[in-house]
Specification:
The structure is a single chain. The chain has 609 residues and is mainly alpha-helical. The chain is 47% helix and 6% strand. It has 25 helices and twelve strands. A three-stranded antiparallel sheet has the order 3-4-5. The chain has a three-stranded antiparallel sheet with strand order 8-11-12. The longest helix has 22 residues.
Length: 609
């Protein structure tokens, strides 16, 4: 395989000597003036970039830490609030739409608290940022938005999918429309949606959820004009992924089109500059080794899974390495390929609704090509599960990661195998033991120092629950209810009545309601996607989350948050599901039923506190 660096443009993360690459950022970040490298690159300039650089050049050849501190104080503003103007969404309501019909007091309490967080996390770019964009690393956006929380004071692409789901279920349609228009503004500006709305993020993206956001928005509002007006920009974003993240891969005498995470620039990540440089210089002797390391770190950041043993390829083809073993762009990820399949299917459906049959057929063909890759390359017929693919060693990576189950959510399987994959997924989840943790399903079973390993992440809980429900298998739906119920209890534990409501970005899998750990920064409060997933589960299951310990098949109206799909779905009775079970009458089936119906802890214990 040719050097992967041959495909990387010789460009910095952004065209700025302050926020991208150059002696200034290198000197300041290496001095560790801030405990978090992101703090420096988020500062506003007090002067023009040219003058700031000139002032830096007037310092001594090797400035002391004291000199650098004085330089930063004289040339940068330490007040982040200058980026924002006060903004409150006009469609926010004291009692949100998703709590209609909810009678359980503890559930209403956590729902109302989370609803308040939408106001706390609401921001709009300031007029000063609009008038002086060259003085900020922040990318100006024309409409208000919901930021994730904590150190993240900007929009992040994939986070926003779960934020949008929660906002729509809260009845905040205008806010969502503005957020969508912000994304389309970025596609117009850059040709794709960057990782986040900072200039130093603009040469990498994140998992492409824009099409799915549009699907949820149209489903909630039936605003077909908005859809039609933005089809070209959605196609433009997908074109970016096809041209820049897709490659032809040969294996077993066949060729496949595969999607991977990558980055279109060189050098360390500006927001983690010191951290990247220290690891690279300690572990790699040559510039090529350091550059490849930087590439894989940025590609992992593009994946959203930054960082995880999922991206490590050690000398034994395993995942037992460390950051220097990151080989992100050599891995064909299950989640990205499943997401691209879903994007193509949605675009096929959109064009059909708009009467554009030629494009409908084109996207249908693209979806089939991706499905072939998923079915032949990523699906393991022995484990009966999807796995990432290692393009260096030409093999599947048979390790548990929550991302293995994303094809369930994306419905990236042949229609006639819908119930079969549901049964396979239940067996796999129970076999790995991941459903036994009272804090939720961890991203992986590996105890590393990386945050996307032994932690419970809300997006994964949602995709697994939603995916299991979509299979129409009663055992899968029972397990989905158990996972959703457990997640709800986790968030209720960290948001008790009479105490501060602590909603975390990630949770500890073994201690209910406790924040997760690991990674490059302290655990963050807020938190956008945590709120969105909780709201989705409340809207899906309602009071059942506290009133029942196992799934009630009579409440089929709660199974999906997808109104359009529900209208098309055939109600599956418990008797039909049992008749078609491949493990009927076996000890294995009894284990499934027992485990899926079992509760991790009683809701009464949480509700009483």
């Amino acid at each position: 395989m040719a050097s992967i660096l041959d495909s990387v443009p010789d460009k910095p993360p952004c065209d700025s000597e302050i926020w991208g690459a150059g002696k200034l950022i290198d000197t300041v970040q290496r001095a560790r003036l801030f405990s978090d490298s992101k703090a420096f690159v988020d500062l506003k300039l007090l002067h023009s970039e040219e003058l700031v650089i000139s002032n830096f050049k007037s310092l001594s050849e090797s400035p002391s830490k004291e000199e650098l501190e004085a330089f930063v104080k004289e040339n940068f503003s330490l007040h982040h609030e200058q980026e924002f103007d006060v903004w409150k969404p006009t469609d926010w309501k004291e009692t949100p739409q998703f709590l209609r019909g909810i009678t359980e007091t503890p559930l209403r309490h956590v729902g109302l608290e989370v609803n308040k967080l939408w106001k706390m996390l609401s921001r709009k770019c300031s007029e000063d940022l609009k008038a002086n964009p060259d003085k900020y690393s922040k990318v100006f956006l024309p409409h208000g938005f919901i930021m994730p929380g904590g150190r993240f004071r900007e929009i992040y692409y994939w986070d926003t999918y779960w934020i949008v789901r929660g906002l729509l279920l809260s009845g905040m349609y205008d806010t969502v429309k503005g957020i969508m228009e912000n994304f389309f503004f970025q596609v117009s500006e850059f040709g794709y949606i960057p990782n986040g709305t900072r200039k130093y993020y603009t040469r990498r993206s994140q998992p492409p959820y824009l099409t799915s956001m549009m699907s949820k928005y149209v489903e909630a509002t039936e605003d077909m004009m908005f859809l039609e007006n933005h089809m070209d920009l959605m196609e433009k974003e997908l074109d970016f992924y096809e041209k820049n993240r897709c490659l032809k891969y040969a294996h077993g005498g066949k060729e496949y089109y595969v999607y991977r995470y990558f980055a279109d620039c060189r050098g360390p990540r500006p927001e983690s500059y010191a951290e990247d440089v220290e690891v690279a210089e300690e572990l790699f002797e040559d510039e090529a080794g350091r550059e490849e390391f930087y590439l894989h770190m940025k590609a992992a950041a593009e994946s959203g899974w930054d960082f995880s043993s999922r991206w490590f390829i050690d000398e034994h083809k395993g995942n037992a390495g460390k950051l220097s073993d990151a080989k992100t762009s050599y891995i064909v990820p299950v989640d990205l390929n499943a997401l691209m399949y879903k994007n193509y299917r949605l675009m096929e459906e959109f064009h059909s609704q708009l009467g554009q049959e030629d494009k409908c057929a084109m996207y249908g063909k693209k979806a089939k090509n991706v499905l072939r890759t998923i079915s032949e390359l990523l699906w393991d017929p022995h484990e009966k599960m999807w796995f990432d693919w290692d393009m260096l060693n030409h093999c599947r990576r048979r390790f548990f990661y929550a991302s293995n189950l994303v094809p369930l959510w994306a419905e990236a399987y042949p229609e006639h195998q819908r119930k079969k994959v549901g049964k396979c997924a239940v067996l796999y989840l129970l076999r790995t033991g991941v459903t036994s943790h009272e804090g939720g399903i961890p991203a992986s079973l590996y105890h590393t120092s990386q945050q996307w390993d032994w932690n419970v992440w809300p997006p994964s809980q949602h995709m697994i629950v939603s995916g299991l429900n979509k299979t129409g298998n009663i055992h899968a739906q029972r397990l989905a209810f158990r996972i959703a119920r457990n997640y709800t209890l986790v968030t209720m534990t960290s948001c008790r009545r009479g105490q501060a409501c602590m909603i975390f970005e990630k949770y500890n899998p073994v201690v209910r309601g406790e924040a997760g750990g690991g990674g490059e920064y302290e655990v963050q409060l807020g938190f956008g996607w945590t709120n969105g997933v909780l709201i989705d589960f409340i809207a899906t299951y309602g009071d059942d989350l506290l009133q029942y310990e196992e799934f009630q098949s009579r409440e089929m109206k709660h199974v999906y948050g997808f109104k359009a799909k529900l209208r098309r779905a055939r109600a599956i009775t418990e008797e039909e599901a049992v008749e078609e079970s491949p493990v009927q009458g076996t000890a294995e089936q009894e284990a499934i039923v027992a485990a899926a119906g079992q509760t991790v802890a009683t809701a009464q214990n949480v509700a009483a506190t």
